[in-house]
Every structure is written in structure tokens, then in C-alpha cells.
């Protein structure tokens, strides 16, 4: 499966020209950063593997992508979560529903005394080995060294694009969960990679970087947000900038991560609206990482909130 060479669109938003790397167009099942992060496993012979083991949220984009990967490789996906809302069980939707349709086992980790990843490492994997079953464990969101394989390809595409435009320098901007994509891009491009912490705040994101790379000189720049946002909570500014982007650019972004990155850019643009000499003039290349499957559940939540506010 060849997942590479996505186009770059030039759009205007908030009075600025911005380039958008359309990784959302890679593949319906592996759009965006999951295609890049799982590229290593897609290229591997997993014919001797009985199970893929993953963990995270029941509505994570990675859950859906892992379920497709398991189907393609003819093995079973066991995906562990720390909880599963009864409403979602009774009304399957979004990534959860799609993963179930692909045959995934979505399991609530039984050990409340340890984290989900510790539960997998201490109980699940040893039990599978004892039963003689071969398993490949893929950490939450693909946060592992194997993700660099596909992200190096993305980095090379960015370098080639900049050369084609005769840009000596650009800013690569994207939002982060675990920060895996941003980190491996920074390691492999000569440009500054700027990202924002969408999960757990800046200290959490810095720790994620350190776990994958101890050399802080290779870490991306973390953009400061105007306030602290709680992951998964609804914020009307998120919806408004998402809707504004869709109208202005005719590109649909996802509703969990992208709005915060664009709000960071909006804040920067408004602060530099007088064209101060200090304003950063480098071209911006925004990485659209896909994940639109999650909008199936996020958009109705926002529409209900909007109706309530009115």
C-alpha cells in the first residue's frame, strides 16, 4: 500500500496565505498521521502474528486505523480502554462503531490499580505468550520508534515541496496529541516545526517528546495557547474557527485537534496585524492530519451545544 505524495493547497485565511499539506487525502482508513505512523506495520509481513494489541480512547482515530490494519493483515485487534460509556455501547457511533464493524475486540482493562498500558504489559501480553499466541503491541496513537519510518517519508515530501517553491525556510505547523508526528518531523526536516499541546498541556507534551528523543535540540517548538483547554471538552471558539475554515478554504478539518492549532495562528496574526517588523514572514505549511471520522460524533455535540446557547 503506497501512502505518500499528498498535494499541497494554498489557501487564504485571516488575511494570510497558508499552505495546507493534505495528508487527510492519503486514504479513507489511514488518513493523515495514522497512515504515516502505521506505515512501518503496513509494509511488514505479519502473517505469523495472531493479534495486534492497542490502547487508547474508544473514539480515537487510531482505533479505527488499527482495526483496518488488522483486517489487512488478517489478524485480530484487541484494543484496551480505561472505560466504555454505556451510552456508546448502546448507541455505537464514530470510530468505535467502525472498529466494531471491522471485527475489533474493544476491551475495558480490568486492573484499576495500574494504567492501561501497564495492564497490557504486565497481564495481557504475558497471557498471550503463555497461550502460544504471537502479538504485536502498538502503543497509544502509534507513539513508538517505528512511527519514524513513515514520518521520514512525509519529511522528505515537505523538503521537496519547499525546494519546488524555492523556499529556503518555512514553518511547519500542526497540533499534537502524543507529539509523535511533530517530533519525528522535527528530527527529519531542516525547518522549524511548531505544535500545540491538545492533550495534557505543555508539560505532558514535553515528557512525550523526551520519551521518544532525549536530545531536546531535536524537539519541536511548542506554541503557547491563550488558555488551558481540556481535551474532548466542547469550546465554541473551536467550532467557530472550524466552521470559518470550512467556509473560507472549502477544506474540512477535524474538531478535536485542528481548532486549537488554528486558534494559535489566529492569535499570532491578530497580535501582528500592524505588520510589525518582528512578525514572522516565513511561509506556513500546515499539516492536515486527517481524522475526520471523529467528526461524526463531535459535530452533533457542538450543534446541540449551539442550540442550547441560543
How do you describe this structure in short?
With 310 residues, the protein is an alpha/beta fold. Helices cover 42% and strands 16% of the residues.
Report on the architecture of this protein.
With 310 residues, this protein is an alpha/beta fold. The chain folds into two domains: 8-30 and 145-309, Rossmann fold (3-Layer(aba) Sandwich); 39-137, Rossmann fold (3-Layer(aba) Sandwich), CATH 3.40.50. The chain is built from twelve helices and ten strands. The chain has helices spanning 33-37, 39-43, 61-72, 86-90, 94-101, 116-130, 148-164, 180-188, 201-212, 236-249, 258-271, 295-309; strands spanning 8-13, 16-22, 51-55, 76-81, 105-108, 135-137, 171-176, 192-197, 221-222, 284-288. It has a six-stranded mixed sheet, with helices on both faces. α9 links the parallel β8 and β9 (221-222). α3 (61-72) runs parallel beside α5 (94-101) and α7 packs across α8 (180-188). It is globular, with a radius of gyration of 20 Å. The chain starts with 7 loop residues before the first strand and ends with a helix.
What key attributes describe this structure?
single chain; 310 residues; alpha/beta; Rossmann fold; 2 domains; six-stranded mixed sheet; four-stranded parallel sheet; 12 helices; globular
Amino acid at each position: 500500500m503506497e501512502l505518500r505524495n499528498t498535494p499541497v493547497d494554498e489557501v487564504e485565511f485571516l488575511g494570510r496565505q497558508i499552505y495546507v499539506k493534505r495528508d487527510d487525502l492519503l486514504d479513507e482508513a489511514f488518513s493523515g498521521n495514522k497512515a504515516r505512523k502505521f506505515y512501518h506495520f503496513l509494509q511488514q509481513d505479519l502473517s505469523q502474528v495472531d493479534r495486534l494489541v492497542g490502547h487508547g480512547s474508544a473514539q480515537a482515530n487510531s482505533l479505527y486505523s488499527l482495526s483496518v490494519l488488522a483486517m489487512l493483515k488478517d489478524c485480530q485487534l484487541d484494543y484496551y480502554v480505561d472505560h466504555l460509556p454505556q451510552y456508546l455501547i448502546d448507541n455505537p457511533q464514530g470510530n468505535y462503531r467502525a472498529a466494531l464493524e471491522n471485527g475489533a475486540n474493544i476491551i475495558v482493562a480490568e486492573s484499576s490499580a495500574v494504567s492501561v498500558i501497564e495492564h497490557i504489559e504486565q497481564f495481557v501480553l504475558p497471557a498471550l505468550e503463555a497461550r502460544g499466541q504471537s502479538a504485536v503491541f502498538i502503543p497509544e496513537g502509534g507513539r513508538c520508534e517505528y512511527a519514524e519510518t513513515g514520518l521520514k517519508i512525509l519529511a522528505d515530501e515537505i523538503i521537496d515541496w519547499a525546494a519546488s517553491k524555492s523556499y529556503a525556510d518555512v514553518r511547519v505547523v500542526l497540533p499534537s496529541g502524543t507529539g509523535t508526528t511533530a517530533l519525528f518531523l522535527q528530527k527529519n526536516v531542516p525547518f522549524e516545526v511548531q505544535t500545540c499541546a491538545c492533550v495534557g498541556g505543555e508539560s505532558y507534551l514535553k515528557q512525550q517528546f523526551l520519551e521518544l528523543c532525549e536530545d531536546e535540540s531535536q524537539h519541536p517548538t511548542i506554541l503557547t495557547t491563550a488558555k488551558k483547554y481540556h481535551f474532548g471538552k466542547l469550546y465554541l471558539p473551536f467550532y467557530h474557527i472550524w466552521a470559518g475554515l470550512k467556509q473560507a478554504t472549502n477544506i474540512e478539518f477535524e474538531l478535536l485537534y485542528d481548532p486549537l492549532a488554528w486558534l494559535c495562528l489566529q492569535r499570532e496574526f491578530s497580535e501582528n496585524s500592524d505588520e510589525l517588523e518582528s512578525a514572522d514572514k516565513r511561509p506556513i505549511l500546515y499539516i492536515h492530519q486527517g481524522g475526520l471520522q471523529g467528526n461524526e460524533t463531535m459535530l452533533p455535540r457542538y450543534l446541540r451545544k449551539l442550540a442550547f446557547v441560543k
